[in-house]
Amino acid sequence: MYKINQMKIFDYIYVNVCNKFDQRPILSLFAVTVFLSFFFYSFPSVDRAATALFYQPGVGFPAARVEALRDFRNLAANLTVILPVAFSLGLFLKLVYPSKPCLFSPRMSLYFISLFLIGPALMVNGVLKSFWGRPRPVNITEFGGIWPFQEAWVIGEHGLLNRSFTSGEAATIACLLPLALFVPREWRWQVATLIGVLVVATSLNRIAFGAHFLSDVTISIGLMLTLAAALHRLFFVDRAEMLCDAALEARLTAYGQRWAADRAAFRRRSGEVLGAFTRAVGTFLTAQGAAARMVAGRIEASIGGEAMVRALVTPLAAPLSSLTGGRTVRRLSQTTPNRS
What we know:
This is Phosphoesterase PA-phosphatase related protein. By secondary structure, this protein is mostly helical. The protein has ten helices and no strands.
């Protein structure tokens, strides 16, 4: 009887928690993130203990040298890049070919592109890693480094470039979790579980490498899920009509047609400018050719006249020389200089 009542209590709590989460997912996820932040700040030994599980004195973090784990890290990183790149490519192709439909749902594409840009790119790598100088586990004195341990959310030294708080890879892989919302309802838990396993494995992999603390990955995941819930509300609730697929499709078609018209006008203007330039060059070359031919004609005429004089004088040179003793020839030669 006691066990039955206990199970009913747990079921009641579970149902109420799920209902509260469904009603206020943003607030619930934000509260979880705040709780995790407060917990790790209040109990920093948890971070040390979790990292110590993967550390061997004198060796370091041996998992970082396991080829299979390194390949898994590269695989997870590539998977997270494929999604936003594919969605961005789909929108770009829609602009290039405006008469064709989008490859993917335009609202879903914009949702995930916004999530990846605001979350891992801006929030984590742009803000947190830039201003919170928390050293990585491999860099602190307890695990063979030279920097002191720093609690979560504490702004540390700014001389450290390779910073730990928060985890960029955990944030990026966590952005895949909302994919479960875009599959048929019957498959959501299965897809969410599969992606969740990938998120946990990636996070543990970073901890095993000595690259992040447990607080880095958990807080990073909490922040991304909170952001994902906020963007989901914006795209699918608050601005659902303005950002629906039909409206976005029509807007992208209009932008694509306008861009196509601008490209055609640019090609026409470029052709006109190129044609005018070609004609100007042709006119210039023609004028230069005519001037060159005129100069060549004058030179040729000048050379031809002198040659005629020499041709007339030369046959008379010998007889005149015998009569005048060479003075006439010298005088004629002086009046007809040799320019050959």
